[in-house]
Write a structure and sequence with these properties.
Radius of gyration: 17 Å
Distance between the termini: 46 Å
Largest sheet: 7 strands, mixed
Bound molecules: S-adenosylmethionine
Strand order of the largest sheet: 3-2-1-4-5-7-6
């Protein structure tokens, strides 16, 4: 699923029929603090997470980046005229906002597109735009087994997770979601634009980039997606 521009017009019809996706949006929003004012959404897509944040946090402003022009066009049209939303071209490794600009960085189903080798650069870029003590809340798909392409245990883990997810979509009548879930299977095992790391690998990178207070939220009944929460360390007040 690399062609987000072409997929953008079909995205909401498919994803909004998926119970796991809706659960992800609700659980991200539940992690936000009512006092948070400035929130960044990385890989905002059509803006479904932004819409939920605006509803739940009436005092919040949301900035968003996405590399796909098609996604940004839909999102910009959706929030046109709102002084609470700004959408910019960008991606997880190049966020066009100043240092320490945000109380929270949220992201949903986007960071598995960042290559393993760039994961540490990605979390450092996220740390850069967060205020000290600010939170990073990341929902995504994760592999249960470290390793790389052609590792049997890793491939089996991905196949089992993807098939379980596809079957759940089918049982919920989300036929199109089942199809695109299965379509992502080969690119994921082949590491072709889909880079599923493990949760411990992400936590290690976050730790190296100055994050702490980790929390991992499961999304039953499946193991395929989880939400990682972390806080950027506070500035050391002994050395202002
Ligand atoms: C599955 S969609 C999720 C959209 C949205 N976050 C949501 O939950 O509805 C994945 C999004 O990630 C974006 N994306 C792809 N590569 C990215 C990257 N390197 N950094 C940020 N976003 C990326 C795509 O353009 C697409 O909009």
């Amino acid at each position: 699923m690399a062609d987000w521009d072409n997929f953008s017009t079909r995205f909401d019809n498919i994803f909004l029929a998926d119970p796991l996706y809706l659960d992800i949006l609700e659980k991200i929003v539940a992690e936000l603090d009512a006092d948070d004012k400035d929130i960044l959404d990385i890989g905002c897509g059509t803006g479904n997470l932004i819409a939920r944040i605006l509803e739940e946090l009436p005092g919040a402003r949301v900035a968003a980046v996405d590399p796909s022009q098609g996604m940004r066009d839909i999102c910009s049209e959706r929030f046109e005229g709102s002084d609470r939303v700004s959408i910019a071209a960008g991606h997880a490794l190049a966020i066009p906002f100043p240092d320490a600009a945000f109380d929270d960085v949220v992201t949903s189903l986007a960071l598995h597109h960042v290559h393993y080798d760039l994961r540490e650069d990605c979390v450092r870029e996220i740390a850069r735009v967060l205020k000290p003590g600010g939170r990073f809340i990341c929902a995504d798909t994760f592999c249960g087994v470290p390793g790389r392409k052609e590792d049997t245990a890793r491939c089996r883990d991905i196949i089992e997770k993807v098939v379980a997810k596809a079957l759940l979509s089918l049982e919920h009548g989300a036929y199109e979601m089942m199809l695109i879930t299965l379509a992502a299977l080969v690119p994921t095992v082949a590491e072709d634009g889909e880079y599923w790391a493990t949760v411990p690998e992400w936590l290690e990178s976050l730790s190296l980039a100055g994050f702490q207070e980790f929390k991992v939220i499961d999304l039953p009944p499946l193991e395929i997606a989880k939400i990682i929460c972390a806080a950027k360390v506070q500035e050391d007040l002994r050395f202002p």
